[in-house]
Amino acid sequence: MKQQDYLKRVITERIRILKDCREKAKPQYRESYDISIRTLEWVLTQFPREGGAGTDGDSLHN
To answer: 3-class secondary structure for the chain?
Structure first.
């Protein structure tokens, strides 16, 4: 569980950094940032919820 919490924190921080960079980026590069942000946000949804039963079998843990 500690590893999973660490991964969530790292991914959340990366999303924050990407959003900051996106705001400063030239318009032609913003879509690339959007794709990266959406992808990482999706990855976060694949972790089992706290105290929940898990995901639809597409979980990231072993």
So the answer is: CHHHHHHHHHHHHHHHHHHHHHHHCCHHHHHHHHHHHHHHHHHHHCCCCCCCCCCCCCCCCC
Q: For residues 28 and 1, what is the distance between their CA atoms, to the nearest angstrom?
A: 39
φ and ψ at residue 30, rounded to 5 degrees: -65, -35
Per-residue pLDDT reduced to its tens digit, 11-44: 999 999 999 999 999 999 999 999 999 999 999 9
With 0.85 as the threshold, say if the pTM is over it: no
Q: List the structure tokens of 16.
A: 């924050």
Residue type, 58: D
From CA 26, how far away is CA 46, in angstroms rounded?
A: 31
The total number of residues shown for the chain amounts to 62
